[in-house]
Amino acid sequence: MAPLMILSGGGARRRFRALVAVVAVTAVGTTAAVLRSDAGPGGRTRHGSVASPAAGPTSSSAGSGFAGESAVSGVAAPSGATSSAAGPESAPATPRTTTTGAGGTAPAPAPAAGKLTPATRPAGAAAAVGQGPDEAPGWRLLPKAPIGGRVGQDAVWTGREMVIWGGESALGADPLADGAAFDPASRTWRKLPAAPIAPRFLATMVWTGREVIVFGGTSGEGDLLVDGAAWDPASNAWRRLPASPAGPRDGAVVAWAGDRLVVWGGATVEPAASEMRADGAAYVPGTDRWVPVAAAPIPARTGAESVWTGRRLVISGGYHDGDDGDRSDGAALDPVSGVWSPIASRPAPGSCGSDVPCDGRWTGTLALFPASGLRYDPVGDRWSTLAPYPSAARSLADQPAVWTGQRLLAWGTPNDVEVADGASTGAGSAGEESDSGSGGDGPPPPAGAGMYDPVADRWQAVAAGPLSGRVFHTAVWTGQEMLVWGGTAGDAGLADGASYRF
User: Model-level pTM?
Assistant: First the structure.
């Protein structure tokens, strides 16, 4: 799932350009540059993520848990956390990631303070489907794509192909309305036909199990778009979606929830008077209709974090106009019944936007919010803190990340590196071409990679690979490897990518 950055006028593009200098993230798997307006309707700057504690996991709990919450990956609850017993339950597949792990891994000894240990393959990972002896672990450059470099695009995994669409060829350039799909099995690209919607960047893309939905995004004039289209990979054809009846929403949650795309909360934008809302609408592809989403039992807000657990859409934090600070409360929506349930308050308030991603990653038992330093157990209705990244000066916690079935895998430019305008992005590997499209003369910012193990509650280092450092790139997990593509190291969009197996 990928949230929208919603700004009227030229503000979206100005903010998008400014954020390159502070290293923001995508989402994902998926996804994609994750951006929101950095100011509420009153001009308040939305602020930062929860500081990662130095100590081990702590938690707060309240309310009732969700008995029977899906557990599909075998990742154990964090040490010290309690949860109620729950029977197995089949959950719909979530977009952007495909889980492959069959069981949890035993916690490894913690590294010395401030140190990262080399990444090791989790137990069972060597048996990943399709990974033969000729497909060794490590990085490999992708073949050249049939589309130009871009920034502000989104990407999604369909179970067979990584689909990329939209974005801008460079920061400030006219938005794009083209895309391409990459099949890692054959290592071939195909170009998508022209979409029946206007060009845009920062759209939301999800996989329904049959179609790729592109919704919303920002126009070349910086206005929020509330229409969309769906692409069927089998027929290679597009169809238009009806416009959202909720209208433009600044800082809304936009998330796939099993069989529908939910748009919730946020603030209305011009020409109507701005007003924060606690309701929304959901698009159901099966009926090609929008249905109302009832008001949640929490105050209206913008910049809330969210994650789909396979049964409920969990929403937490955010900013309510008039409050002195961010929110710590939240609620969970059953999208089929339309019923909301309050959840425990998080250990510390927080909101997303600017350089803080808005969508979490679901492990099968835990919701991970690495940029906020938090994780949530919906069965026990219990929050706990993530172990901090060992090097506070080079954290990857807010970089594009994918869930591999056993680890959270992140790659990008660590947030201590300032990206200079016009930096070059040279990357290379024997046998295949790297098409950076940077056009700059300066050295590229360095990239970094790391994995977080929720069982051991620790991060470990991963080889950064052949690509130059960048921001606003996309990353998806195929069930066997992570695919990284595009982004920018200055102004121009990049057209290269790489795959990583471990």
Answer: 0.76
